[in-house]
Amino acid sequence: MVTAKLFIVSLFTLVMGNPLGRRSMQLLESRSDIPDGFVNSGAASPDSVLKLRVALAQNDPAGLTAALLDVSEPTSANFRQHLTKEEVEAFVAPKPETVTAVNQWLSENELTATKISPTGDWISFEVPVSKANELLDAEFTTFTHAETGDQSILTLAYSIPADLVGHVELVHPTVTFPNPFGRLPVFSSPTKLSNSAVNLTSDAVPASCANTVTPACVQALYDVPTTKATQSSNTLGVSGFIGQFANQADLKSFLTSLRPDVPSTTTFALQTLDGGKNTQTRSQAGIEADLDIQYTVGIATGVPVTFISVGNNFQDGALEGFLDIINFLLGESNPPQVLTTSYGQNENTISSNLANQLCNAYQQLGARGTSILFASGDGGVAGSQSSSCTTFLPTFPSGCPFMTSVGATSGVPETSASFSSGGFSNVFTQPSYQTTAVEQYLSTLGNTNAGKFTKTGRAFPDVAAIGENVEINLDNEFGLVAGTSCASPIFASLISLINDRLAAAGQPSLGFLNPFLYANPQAFNDITTGSNPGCNSNGFPATTGWDPVTGLGTPNFPALLAAAGA
């Protein structure tokens, strides 16, 4: 490890030298299509400056995967014996020969790089388009998103010196396009609906919950206790992006009305990166940020919640902070035990190499004991709200096998929410922990939707929670929202409550959830009705057992708690 660190340090020292003869180049990545909504606006200005990021080959990614599964499989002797920061970094740090090879390449081109990940497996440097074209044998072009007018400088293909193949995994941003279809939940019915007088019992859900979902409804649906968490070391992280601010005053109004048993002064901590902030001007409150904070603080009673605001000074380009936030948390000694994110994009906008790199970052955090949850998306089998597809569009990062994808349900009794994105990844293969469940579903499905999806891909979502007619407070008004972005913070809150009980018993957190979840299908309320239409089809039907609409189903908190051994 000491030797590796010395090489990493040397990589980021400014080196000067005369360029040598041109090396033999080899194609690293390419794409033949331009994603829907983008048009080619011509060659990029040669003077435009690009901030390129380079992913270096990690020391032993397969070893990290094996270690992650070893601490995540319930049958393993090492179940929940999470890795330390140093143990994870030993798998990830580039080998000395990789550092040397890349250092030589930079030296020949009179470039200097900056480390942008804890172990130096990601570096960055700036070059004008003219030099980037030469350096990567590329043709950087301006692509315009017709609907928004946003422009991106990208290329459809690029190469690296042949002797760097095996040392350089990818250069970014190159062939990955930004997300054109992202959408925030719609806030409706600004007049507060009458539900405060509902009397809840342990064996019934009030009829009003079919039309207006409150924290009390979530507690009744999933038998979630109101008992306050006791372990301050157990924390829940909420990701914030695209200038979404979580408002303290809105949270106070929410708690006063909908969780009167919780002190209205209850608040959340703040972390920022990439120039992020959390402005408290009430009119600037973000609908997504308010939703996520209100349903984590409001459900995970007493669990310390941190809002992690990612600004627009991205280090990861078109990933728009997705990798930055993980690298930020990987650099911490004690990252949150749960992280929920309500954003995503269509898988076909991101290169497979880059998707794998981000997925590998998730397994690093998972190996250290963090449960990573993402909303699965709100476009049914059309992914993130695209309507022009002919084959089903999986979302990212739901296709990554090292995180937990959360779909949505609607109504009481619960049925599948029609917008709940789900399906099969075209990038990631099916992990062993879900093979039996998925095979059962495919057998039931038969030839329905044949040719529209990849049967061998990683299947998602993994689980679900209520996601329609969810009441929040926004800019001092009560109203309803819908989306899988409601379901992810709700499910994450239940996991945080279980972690609290585990910590109180001196046990480690759940960490990477999926092997545990699929091993305990009895801990879920099976959702067997509904579907997720899109791409001019009815989508996938929900059925008995796992399905690509609601996954294993919605949580039964006492059963999950018992399965966790808390």
Overview of the structural elements:
The protein has 566 residues and is an alpha/beta fold. It folds into two domains: 2-58 and 93-172, no CATH class; 213-563, Peptidase S8/S53 domain (Rossmann fold). 27% of the residues lie in helices and 20% in strands. It is built from 14 helices and 25 strands. It has helices spanning 2-11, 61-72, 85-92, 96-108, 129-136, 215-222, 248-258, 287-297, 322-330, 352-367, 435-445, 484-504, 514-518, 557-563, and strands at 25-30, 38-43, 49-56, 114-115, 122-128, 141-145, 151-154, 157-161, 168-172, 236-240, 269-273, 305-310, 338-341, 345-346, 371-375, 395-396, 404-410, 415-416, 423-429, 457-460, 463-466, 470-474, 477-481, 524-525, 554-555. The strands form eight sheets. Strands 10, 11, 12, 13, 15, 17, 18 and 21 form an eight-stranded mixed sheet that branches. Helix 2 (61-72) packs across helix 10 (352-367) and helix 9 packs parallel to helix 10 (352-367). It starts with a helix and ends with a helix. The relative contact order is 0.13. One of its GO terms (molecular function) is serine-type endopeptidase activity. The active site is at 288 (charge relay system), 292 (charge relay system), 485 (charge relay system). Keywords: Calcium, Glycoprotein, Hydrolase, Metal-binding, Protease, Secreted, Serine protease, Signal, Virulence, Zymogen.
